[in-house]
Design brief:
With 263 residues, the protein is α+β, with helices and mostly antiparallel strands. It is 37% helix and 22% strand. The chain contains eleven helices and eleven strands. The protein has helices at residues 21-28, 30-34, 38-46, 58-63, 66-80, 113-128, 142-146, 169-176, 185-190, 212-226, 252-256; strands at residues 3-7, 13-17, 47-50, 86-93, 96-103, 150-154, 161-165, 195-198, 201-204, 232-236, 244-248. The strands form five sheets. A three-stranded antiparallel β-sheet has the order 1-2-3. It has a two-stranded antiparallel ribbon with strand order 4-5. The chain has a two-stranded antiparallel ribbon with strand order 6-7. The relative contact order is 0.16.
């Protein structure tokens, strides 16, 4: 079996195989899309190993950090199609078909800050000692990665120390139940389980009572920690001013409707 090995944004090694026709069946079923299981089941089809874990169950996949999950899907797709540099989104406006090429380099997930800090330190060391830096995993077990999931924030106004958790596959399923058109900032922030320490352990942080300065600082830390790479693109109709469509590049066309870019 031909596979491809790479390092996830969290700093642990992963191994994937190519996407098959069987995978397309589970990914495009309406029930799987509606229940938020489509991406999880596609990961189940392509993921061979994460660190020292080879027993890839649904439970394990749902514990993976969100950006690791996206990196697995994106990289498996690229491996399947021999790592193309460009992808052409094709969408229709009335009878007209619009072709919108994008550079796939712009959609490679960046590292989580806790792993990037390790990378930066090793890069600096390699420069000081005049040897070439080669990326390497920082963790062997995903349990080690999950220990980094809890992020600490010192709020600037109240001087209170609070915490939030990086999102996982389980959190993604919770997010699907939120109406994105009606969701407030507080609703989106609550998906990351912000907490503070009480006498008996963690208690949910009351975001409504936070000073605006503290709320903004916490939201900024959440954005920086996850730095979620955008896969949603707005495509404008070239023939009609003001007309546009929102397209998610990581849909079934991206994984199963490959279009070779002309050069």
């Amino acid at each position: 079996m031909q596979t491809y090995t790479f390092i996830l944004p969290s700093g642990i090694e992963a191994e994937v195989k190519y996407i098959s026709g069987e995978a397309s069946e589970v990914f495009t079923k309406k029930k799987n899309i509606e229940t938020g299981m489509a991406h999880t089941l596609l990961i189940k089809q392509v993921l061979v190993r994460v660190g020292d874990e080879t027993n890839i169950t649904i439970e394990f996949i749902e514990r993976l950090l969100t950006k690791d999950r996206k990196a697995i899907l994106f990289t498996a797709r690229q491996f399947t199609y021999d790592f193309p540099e460009e992808y052409k989104i094709i969408t229709k406006f009335g009878k007209s078909e619009v072709e919108y090429p994008i550079s796939l380099e712009d959609y490679v997930p960046s590292n989580y800050p806790f792993y990037q800090k390790i990378v930066d330190e090793k890069k600096k060391l390699s420069e000081e000692n005049e040897f070439k830096y080669e990326p390497e995993p920082a963790f062997k077990s995903y349990e080690e990665v999950l220990e980094k999931r809890k992020c600490e924030v010192l709020l600037p106004k109240s001087k209170k120390t609070v915490y939030f958790y990086l999102m996982t596959g389980k959190d993604e399923k919770r997010a699907l139940k939120v109406n994105s058109d009606e969701a407030s900032l507080l609703t989106v922030m609550s998906l990351r389980n912000p907490v503070e320490m009480g006498q008996k352990g963690e208690i949910m942080l009351n975001l409504r009572e936070l000073h605006a300065m503290d709320l903004g600082a916490l939201n900024g830390e959440m954005d920086e920690a996850e730095d979620d790479f955008q896969t949603v693109i707005e495509i404008n109709d070239p023939n009609k001013f003001g007309e546009s469509k929102i397209v998610n590049i990581m849909d079934h066309h991206f994984f199963f409707g490959y279009r070779r870019s002309s050069k």
